[in-house]
Design a protein that fits this description.
Helices cover about 30% and strands about 5% of the residues. It has a two-stranded antiparallel ribbon with strand order 1-2. It is mainly alpha-helical. The protein is globular. It has a domain at about 40-85.
Length: about 90
Amino acid sequence: MKGQKCKSCSENVKIKAQISQDQINDAIDKLARSKRIKFVRDDVYEFRLLQCSKCEYLEHGSTCMQCGCFVQIRAKLEDARCPLSKNNRWAHQ
């Protein structure tokens, strides 16, 4: 998957190679302040991250090349699903 752009990005978008853990934590903290957003339990979060870490569509250890999300954020959201429609890696939580 190296060198390919994600499905959500246009030609003129350049993704920074890494997002820092502080930036991820800040984004999750901001989401946590919303009363409408629910998070998964820590064990579910760790399971999802493990599945993503083994996925061929993970780029730079943080970006899903199927949907363009930062997996550390998406995996935390209760309503989020793995974007692989035929091979949902989060199905056996």
